[in-house]
């Protein structure tokens, strides 16, 4: 009995505390009990209770489902960036609202809408899938809530953006350029290797593969046209869902077509690692371009030595700040982060914080409108750029690049790497290359 | 309800059968996708002694030579009379002390009916007590040792088969004499 | 029974010229012919078929014996995959450092066997805590109720896994890290070959068990006629317990032996479950024998689609094939009026 009484007393005390905490913040907005509450809300709110205002920011990504790992990296990286500023911008305290798209466009759009309507987020940041981005663009346009730096890259996003800039401008910026601007690296790598005599293919046949999404199809389309322009023929073109792990039938066909290159992408690590293992098992000597293998921090556990000689485009942890981030991340979350998911998201979160600070300085308050104004006046014009990042030298946008950033040396660029024992060696572009293209023996 | 001094009212069906009460239901409940041989083997599920299973099966085949001929045929593909034989044979497999048989003549032509009753008679001659529920009064009363007539849930008459066969009430109500 | 179902009375030619046999015969001919073109088609069909047969066999068993459409079957696959990854993790470190080839060959088995045992126990717990309780209360709308229950169990198991072990995929690169083996000019990873061997051994043992043992017969008897089985002194609860245990052990075994292909995540069982349902619907609900053959048939369709058409169609073609089969034979390829988990 006494235990029961004591427990109910504790409960009552806790309830009382909660009630007083709620009234203390003195915001008229209904404080719906969100399943996701930011760290140390009470602690940071206490000292400056009178002056602090609350805002909510949406953080979007595939936090559960087939891409949960990437989503978790995004979430962790964004959290680390906001932790560094104690979740405050000026006198505003920021509460994150996690928008989980579960790798599904419909769910992503619904979750975003819910975040705006019931959680009252005033802006959003981050994201992973292209198809989710296309769906969420409608929501940000409908409620005029600006969203920044989602990593969805497919050109369907650009097409939509260009179709009605006034409307879809609320999807202010992409964090990843259209594949056309990046696959150039692969094509040049292959052609350079042929020219240098490092790669002497018996055929000019290429097998292309991609996940069956906007992203996968855009990458394959870009690869196909750029390879065709330099004399290659795409003999095979396959798209598959996220659950696909049996590629033996396809690989048998590749063997029959005697393909010299197998190139493509998927954001689903299980699929891609299974594919790479099965290509190796079948004894194919083709050059394998697996765009996105390194997006997952711990991919080598899944592929083992099968990934040797595979080509990918992944930025590295090159600077000291980047290496420190990777170490800190690993210490905090117990897993190796990947530069392209965690690294880019971390940079973009910091850039986003910079945008919030600019909006506050310019307009004196933080609202959807004041934040969107910064995007229009300063981000899109190239006035506001972020050069303190750990992955890219500079993140900047220009009128002719929108909604993509400026891609190229000194701005946003992905080096081409080749894997050996789970480590990537940069083999393109020439000015930063650390090694040479090697053929599978 | 007790059997050999044990209360069996609340026992689950499989334990009742393990006590030595066999039951051949009206709908037979055979295993249609199993052969005759397998149906009999399942009938002997509770018998651990392999020699005993063998001797019981020989007994069944002796009583119903037809089953031996069709040993490997699926139960689901047999005629009505054969199915009835198999059901009785399966009931015999654990060598029960008491066997309850529910309307064995149901749906059978006269000749298979007679064959079935003949087999039951032989079985009882070998020492198995058989409790038969039947509406085919004429044939039944000719083979049974003791008979009870149930009318509206109560025993109306009882006696040996011969006695009841000649009872005027039975003749009037059931035999249409 | 009508005369037509009496096999003895059907002429030999007509008996074998049924839709089912024509389909299977055609499939076999196509498979053999194509093997001349690309032997890998035959080899891959056999290898993937073994996995699907193992998954679908367990699913069919539970439906056949207990009339339960088990939508938690995928989570038992997940349980196997998780257990194997937890047990194999530390063992891998040991075998990798050792020089002994024998150890490297044997290394994966403890994980697989423990997974199998865990699956068996999980099945028994599932039967005792869920289905038995439902049976005690009501057997009305049994199929619908158990479907809902298993769907619920699936959600609970997925989320518990996520809560306890996280969303992190626990994968391995390989179980048997040896040079691929060459069969019929097809290079085959040892992992793939071993899964095939495991599947074949287990399926054969399972078939023998169902056909030849007293308990296996009891299981089939229950699937055909519960009352009849009780009359023969068979304990229904015992058979149910064993059925769910065995079926779960099969699913867990499949999950464990495929760890190198499908890393353990909370949702890893969803895709195999889907294929298993393809197979079971194609073969006819509740027919284990049919499910095993159907597993190979579906694997063949998938391989051929991937080879001759495109990977995009891998899910579409089997579905279309199932629709076609159901049009001609609504009870499935091996479905019949005679209900049973294993027909002679």
Please tell me about this protein's structure.
The complex is a heterotrimer of chains A (441), B (177) and C (344). Chain A has 15 helices and twelve strands. Chain A is an alpha/beta fold and 441 residues long. Chain A has two domains: 52-177 and 337-407, 3-Layer(aba) Sandwich (Rossmann fold), CATH 3.40.50; 179-296 and 298-316 and 415-428, Rossmann fold. In chain A, the strands form three sheets. In chain A, strands 2-3-1-4-5 form a five-stranded mixed beta sheet. Chain A has a four-stranded parallel beta sheet with strand order 7-6-8-9, with helices on both faces. A three-stranded antiparallel beta sheet of chain A has the order 10-11-12. In chain A, α5 links the parallel β4 and β5. The radius of gyration of chain A is 24 Å and the shape is elongated. Chain B is of the alpha/beta class. Chain B has one domain: Rossmann fold (3-Layer(aba) Sandwich), CATH 3.40.50.300. In chain B, 46% of the residues lie in helices and 18% in strands. Chain B is built from nine helices and seven strands. The longest helix of chain B is centred in the middle third of the chain and has 16 residues, at 110-125. In chain C, α3 (39-66) packs antiparallel against α13 (288-309). A two-stranded antiparallel ribbon of chain C has the order 1-2. Mean pLDDT of chain C is 86; it is low at 1-11. The two termini of chain C are 17 Å apart. Chains A and C meet through α3, β7, α10, α11 and α12 of A and α3, α12 and α13 of C.
